Amino acid sequence: xxxxxxxxxxVVTAARSFSADVAIADGKVEAVAPGLVARSxxxxxxxxxxxxxxxxxxxxxxxxxxxxDGEPDxxxxxxxxxxxxxxxxxxxxxxPGTGISEEGAGSLLRGVQEFRDRTEGESAVDFGLSAVITGxxxxxxxxxxxLVASGVPSFKAFMxxxxxxxxxxxxxxxxxxxxxxxxxxxxxxxxxAARYHAETRPAYAEAEATHRAIALARAAQAPVYIVHLSxxxxxxxxxxxxxxxxxxxxxxxPHYLALxxxxxxxxxxxxxxxxVISPPLRxxxxxxxxxLGLRAGGLDLVxxxxxxxRLAVEKRMPAPPFPEISNGAPGIETLLRxxxxxxxxxxxxxxxxxxxxxxxxxxxxxxxxxxxxxEVGKDADLVLFDLSAQRTIRQADLHHYSDFTPYEGTxxxxxxxxxxxxxxxxxxxxxxxxxxxxxxxxxxxxxxTVARD
Length: 453
Ligand SMILES: [Zn+2]
Prior knowledge:
single chain, 453 residues, alpha/beta, nine-stranded mixed sheet, 15 strands, globular, disordered C terminus
């Protein structure tokens, strides 16, 4: 029986936009067609006249931190921030920096279990885990059968394990060969200011790393997913591999699409520190190349790489020497607005491509078949988006755990009006109406079965 009908909106999928009502039953999309209200007289109605009806965003790259005794609300707060931003599913990591215990960091099995235990009943939206293999794991391969036997979603670990192993091997080579040498050079010359973080991470190093990741994956006959691609040169490596038909996928992040390295020249040290992110912000030519890559398909999706650092705590003022500055910036709440406002609203990508790169493709590549589209049978995770609204992004209006936003003062077209999670409002007319613990942990299916479409 139909519980809810979203009426009069413009439904946007990765393929097309069309006027239709969306009927929801038992948390799933039951029908997408005009005139559904008349057929469901007993259902609740949400009027979406004049609004876009999009799938909730699926943010596959966040560093949301586990709740701790000292900071019990940090996972919940960022999940609420995700909801405000139109993100109904996010993936987090469980590497040591996220607050996992020494024990949890020491084994894949215990790490996954600890993540599930400590996030139980915490999230306002659905979420999943990207298990991370680190050099501190005793014996990750030995853990895998136990993961299967215990019913813990091991397959995602397998897939992510493949990605991460490649990434880690690459990263070691990358660091040893290039970045460490540049950092040592900068420090020896007395160049310790925050802006040297960016100068020691040049685009050619990223291109080299991307090339090696692709080569290692090719050797292992594994698909590879390049995280936070930031430069035109690295993009060229991905485009070349895709042209050969190799299973290579790449994400970029909103900050590389919206901001540039011009920030590092700011006389305001706070501005520079807020922009210390890895990889660093690039040139305007890189920024434009990334939009072209998103349009043409060289880039597959956009994820936030959200890091809930605070200027007052993790980042610190005055800044220590640049190697000690915490890397990263918050973005879990601003993902959709920034990519829409700086991209779709300016004609860089279509509304359909916006839905594709923020919801449909992330759900497909990361093994979440119930997510990512306004389609019969999928979870009714919907965003009602108001194109006519114009908003200035301000930290004071955000809900994330950080104490700043890199987009302070940026005016963007479009705003998130209402968000449904499995058919239930989480945000209604701009207000949070969700519940702590309403979000479910998502067991993902093997990405290898869905990654090669
Ligand atoms: Zn990251």
